[in-house]
UniProtKB/TrEMBL annotation:
Residues 4-236 form the Nucleotidyl transferase domain. It comes from Streptomyces iconiensis. Belongs to the transferase hexapeptide repeat family. Gene3D superfamilies: Hexapeptide repeat proteins, Spore Coat Polysaccharide Biosynthesis Protein SpsA, Chain A. It comes from the Bacteria. Residues 252-334 form the Mannose-1-phosphate guanyltransferase C-terminal domain. This is NDP-sugar synthase. Pfam families: GMPPB_C, NTP_transferase.
Length: 360
């Protein structure tokens, strides 16, 4: 297998305000756009041709990655004029694929951080003689997901909507967002209209008697669709819990990019990252957080499990816990923002305007 499709067209509405100016796969995780980690892992698995299915802020991708040669890849870009859904996006890029009808094509979702053994998925697909193979993962509470039960040989037996009662939870296996299609199957997806691969394509193929195979992989897996999970994923990459050959430095408690400026007595822990040209003042404490490009953290600030957008400024003595600060926002000194609060891009919060009491 030498080629893949990357689905990177989503608007990332759950990640706002991080995605107001930046498409979700291009938000930086562990110092580089998240998409860089996916491309690097694909290349390490032997993929050399990737077609990106773009839509929202499509103009951002090609200027950054170009033809992919710096990553050892051949990259192409196909933009949807109107959103086509996951299945429609796959079908929309079919003309750019080189594979023969019986050859496998890898498909990735652009917001999943995973330790999946890509080669093992492809090898199992070939050995099973499958038409489509799905990466499945097990979760403790599957109620928020569609369930994918398999038989003893790994063959998918059903696609079940999100269970509403304990009796409906017949498996803890869920669709983990990576697939292998035989090239010929992609051409069976209807062209020119929205199609959900999860709700229409897979159930339709199963009903038609196609062989859908599931590979259960219990390595690291995280959907980066929310700010909290995105911050966690970035920290896990820095800590080495999530594998990636694209982390720009050694894994450990912190990642400080070369152009960042961090005061000698500032402390970064828990997989925190100081992005390009970020500044961290004296006595600041940063734990499990990501400081994006050009952000400024004033002396004495305390930041935990938070994401600070590009060019944002955090005032002296301010406390952030589980906060998301949009690009260019300014948080004045001596504020306290907690509990998943989101501050929009370019917003201004005056000094001392927001405080939480110790018993609130």
């Amino acid at each position: 297998m030498t080629e893949a499709i990357l689905l990177v067209g989503g608007k990332g509405t759950r990640l706002r305000p991080l995605t107001v100016n930046t498409p979700k796969p291009m938000v930086h995780a562990a110092g580089v756009p998240f998409l860089t980690h996916q491309l690097a892992r694909a290349r390490a698995a032997g993929v050399d041709h990737v077609v990106m299915a773009t839509s929202y802020l499509a103009e951002v991708f090609e200027p950054y990655f170009g033809d992919g040669s710096q990553l050892g890849l051949h990259l192409e870009y196909v933009t949807e004029e109107e959103p086509l859904g996951t299945g429609g996006a796959i079908r929309n890029v079919a003309s750019r694929l080189y594979s023969r009808p019986d050859e496998p094509v890898l498909v990735f979702n652009g917001d999943i951080l995973s330790g999946l053994d890509i080669r093992a998925l492809v090898d199992q697909h070939t050995q099973a003689g499958a038409d489509v193979s799905l990466h499945l993962t097990r979760v403790t509470d599957p109620r928020a997901f569609g369930l994918v039960p398999t038989d003893g040989a790994g063959r998918v037996t059903a696609f079940l909507e999100k269970p509403q009662t304990p009796e409906e939870i017949v498996t803890d296996q869920i669709n983990a967002g990576a697939y292998v299609f035989n090239r010929s199957l992609i051409d069976t997806i209807p062209a020119g209209r929205p199609v959900s691969v999860e709700r229409e394509t897979f159930p339709g193929l199963l009903a038609a008697g196609a062989h859908l195979h599931g590979m259960v992989d219990s390595t690291y897996w995280l959907d980066l669709g929310t700010p909290q999970s995105f911050v966690r994923g970035s920290a896990d990459l820095v800590l080495g819990r999530a594998p990636s050959p694209a982390v720009p430095g050694r894994c450990g408690e912190r990642l400080i990019l070369e152009t960042a400026e961090v005061a000698g007595d500032a402390k970064l822990t828990g997989g925190s990252v100081a992005g390009a040209r970020a500044e961290v003042g004296s006595g600041a404490r940063i734990d499990g957080s990501a400081l994006l490009e050009g952000s400024v953290i004033a002396p004495g600030a305390r930041i935990r499990d938070s994401l600070i957008g590009a060019g944002a400024r955090i005032g002296a003595g301010t406390v952030l816990d589980g906060a998301v600060i949009g690009d260019g926002a300014v948080i004045g000194e001596d504020n306290e923002l907690r509990g998943g609060i989101r501050v929009w891009c370019d917003a201004r919060i005056p000094a001392g305007a927001v405080r939480f009491s110790s018993d609130s």
